[in-house]
């Protein structure tokens, strides 16, 4: 987990990264939470192949409030408040390629909204790991 360890320790800038770690999600959660970060797991293989499924799944993964409207504007609003009381927030997005292939526009908007939170100066780092293979996504480096 060296790339992940560097991210959690603050030696790697928060960001959106490709990651090929073959660890069970429960083990990644344990590592992330041990570092004091909030963990969210979005399983795009079972939910997340459509815009609506993605928006519902990311809301569940990040435990967004009940008023979350399941649209990209509401997601952007809610992301600003995620992670209070933690050292950071990490979203592990397995099966991201499903949305990327099935709805390129929604995937692009999702990355833009998540990226806006990554780069927002909120005092709490926010990172997204796109785990596994999928179509090439420009400007998304590898954490491996």
UniProtKB/TrEMBL annotation:
Check the record and name the SUPFAM superfamilies matching this protein.
Barstar-related
Q: Which classification does the entry list for the species?
A: Bacteria, Bacillati, Actinomycetota, Actinomycetes, Propionibacteriales
Q: Which residues form the Barstar (barnase inhibitor) domain?
A: 49-130
Q: What protein family is recorded?
A: Belongs to the barstar family.
The protein's matches in Pfam families, at most eight in alphabetical order, are given as: Barstar (PF01337)
> Know the name of this protein?
Barstar (barnase inhibitor) domain-containing protein
Q: Which organism is it from?
A: uncultured Nocardioides sp
Superkingdom in the source lineage: Bacteria
């Amino acid at each position: 987990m060296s790339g992940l360890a560097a991210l959690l320790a603050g030696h790697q800038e928060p960001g959106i990264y490709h990651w090929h770690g073959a660890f069970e999600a429960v083990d990644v959660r344990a590592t992330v939470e041990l570092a004091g970060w909030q963990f969210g797991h979005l399983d795009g293989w079972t939910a997340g192949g459509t815009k609506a499924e993605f928006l519902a799944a990311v809301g569940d993964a990040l435990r967004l409030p009940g008023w979350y409207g399941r649209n990209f504007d509401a997601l952007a609003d809610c992301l600003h408040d995620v992670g209070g009381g933690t050292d950071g927030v990490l979203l592990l997005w397995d099966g991201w390629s499903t949305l990327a292939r099935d709805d390129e526009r929604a995937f692009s908007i999702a990355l833009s909204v998540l990226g806006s939170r990554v780069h927002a100066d909120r005092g709490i780092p926010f990172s997204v790991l796109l785990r596994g293979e999928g179509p090439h996504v420009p400007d998304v480096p590898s954490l491996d």
